[in-house]
Design a protein that fits this description.
homodimer, 362 residues, alpha/beta, Rossmann fold, 6-phosphogluconate dehydrogenase C-terminal fold, Alpha-Beta Plaits, 3 domains, 4-stranded parallel β-sheet, 4-stranded antiparallel β-sheet, 13 helices, 47% helix
Chain lengths: 362, 362
């Protein structure tokens, strides 16, 4: 045992198929580590742009490649992965949001020997923007990245894909393709469609009712602003896992309607209590167990110098901030800043900030 | 016309019934403006605590009061409002989350002449904590506060309650009780129950699946952590408006399930597109029209001094920050800070921060 990092397994050359946001970001991260990268895209302009940014070479790639990273839209994953397995002898991965449906397509298109070189993966990173100009070498920095070998994937291929994840600065988590799709149905696709349903209900509201919108409804609906064309593809590809969950949610919704109609506090309390348990089940932000956190609210004049002064004071006080949220007052230039801190530090922070003249409450 | 502020209408004395979070905060805000405040609570300890904090007097209130503010839990609103109207000649308001159900109880308990002195209201403010110790004179600062007179409310009573809202530093918005209840069913109660359903689905997940939880699911489920005992009362009191909306959502959910089962991209796109429209319908954070915003992501070592340095740089660069979110990397001490800024300022901020050595992307 030499203690050498696993990323020694990634020696290149690497071919990135699809020079959009994710593909170009992979290229930038690998180039920053000195790995040789080649780029292709059905859109030549994307290749020129990504190459110009330093994400890799636009030249024809050599016959011998160590790894092909397929970073094309969900609808095109299956054929693109199959083509990479057929055209090269390299390990092949993809960065799509769903793993089972493309695998089924690939399995029907290539022999088992070639299929052994395929290990699907999925970085938990993205952006509201798309295309190579939105790319960044640090897009994946510290993010979870699912590595999802199928039953026939070779361990060598798994090691290469794991090395890719680490070279991009992300944290690998291993799943089977089915487990991955169930996990993201629950943690990503269900929240997305439910946010869209709640936001859809706002679209039908009299506009004057929406002045009563607070941080809660903003939080619940934020992700519903995502690109419908992309989400159509993702949700369709994961339809099986998602419809199973949606049927459970519909059944819970029926239970909720019944409890409201019957005035059954007990059943209503059960549903709400399960929600509380679910929020506590999400891992802590540092990957450890969830820690009790409390919001401390500070009124801050809405210009950037005041935020700097606030965080300078928080730094002096020495309390670590787990999250920040700015809730602007309607109609005036003051923001209420919510500092989320460990519950056992909240009182100290509150009093220390008040002592420095901040208008603060919990 | 003297240009005198409307708050001249609030001269006191004011009686606050219920010295919990909201009642004590009202007392503190009014005392800060020199208004005489008296406090009562079924729990004597709450009165002593609130009075000790400076929220008003624990002594017996005088017979002549200008205003009674009822700040008791939702289940007890109707009787407490009726008692205030019967026992005093003052204007009476309450700060409950639902307006129609308590009004119906009050209407059946007092004559129309007394009912004219009642104007329900609802401040859009709260805290995860409760009780007088969580109170603050600035809890309502800049928040929307619904003023909801019924058809028989006198304009004089409306003026006094509006003056209360302004004395507390909040912004009054006038609704009928029915409109108010429909508005909060959509902007508050529906998001809450749907967040509880999504969070409930997480409670049933294998824990290892939840490492893939990102900011999206955290945002969608955050409010589901609220106190089930309080929410049972709120949802029950607004059952009529809420069940109507929930039936619409169930029908949309059925349409979504059908679209997923049929593979109908068109129908799926319609539902997602309505969601996008809904997110755009929420008023801008400053109360004006929604402005296009973009997230700029900055990797920041996870200790408070670094946040201060970041906001100091943002201040120097001169770009206004509309919102902040910290997404901690699982398993290491770095946070990815998302600065939400006007879209037309994002590129400038990104380049200027990169020029100061920050690791930044969009």
């Amino acid at each position: 045992m030499t203690g050498a990092p696993l990323t020694d397994d990634l020696t290149g050359p690497v071919l990135v198929v699809g020079a959009g946001l994710l593909g170009t970001s992979v290229g930038l991260a690998l180039r920053a580590r000195g790995v040789e990268v080649f780029l292709t895209d059905v859109n030549e302009e994307n290749v020129r742009t990504a190459s110009g940014l330093g994400a890799g070479s636009a030249a024809k790639h050599p016959a011998e490649l160590q790894l092909v990273v397929v970073a094309v839209p969900p609808d095109h994953l299956g054929p693109a992965i199959a083509a990479a397995l057929t055209d090269t002898r390299a390990v092949v991965t993809d960065v799509g949001s769903v793993k089972g449906a493309p695998l089924a397509e690939v399995r029907s298109a290539v022999p088992d020997a070639a299929l052994a070189r395929y290990v699907g993966s999925h970085p938990m990173a993205g952006s509201e923007r798309s295309g190579p100009l939105a790319a960044s070498s640090v897009l994946f920095d510290g993010r979870p990245w699912a590595v999802a070998p199928h039953a026939g994937s070779s361990e060598e291929a798994v090691a290469v894909v794991t090395a890719l994840v680490e070279a991009c600065g992300a944290t690998p988590f291993r799943f089977s393709p089915e487990e991955h799709d169930e996990a993201v149905a629950r943690t990503s696709h269900l929240p997305h469609v439910v946010a869209a349903l709640v936001a859809g209900a706002l679209a039908g509201a009299p506009p004057e009712h929406l002045v009563l919108s607070g941080q809660g409804v903003r939080d619940v609906t934020r992700i519903a602003a995502g690109d419908p064309r992309l989400w159509e593809q993702i949700l369709t590809a994961n339809a099986t896992a998602l419809t199973g969950l949606l049927r459970e949610v519909r059944s819970d919704l029926d239970g909720l309607l019944e409890a409201l109609e019957d005035g059954s506090r007990h059943d209503l309390g059960d549903i709400l209590g399960r929600g509380v348990a679910g929020t506590a089940a999400i891992p802590g932000k540092h990957g450890g167990p969830a820690v009790a956190e409390t919001g401390v609210f500070v009124a801050v004049p809405d210009h950037p110098g005041e935020l700097a002064r606030l965080f300078s004071d928080v730094g002096d006080i020495g309390v670590n901030v787990e999250d920040v949220r700015i809730d602007h007052d309607p109609g005036r230039p003051v923001g209420l800043v919510e500092l989320t801190v460990a519950t056992d530090r909240a009182e100290h922070l509150q009093h220390a900030l008040a002592g420095r003249g901040w208008s603060v409450h919990r």
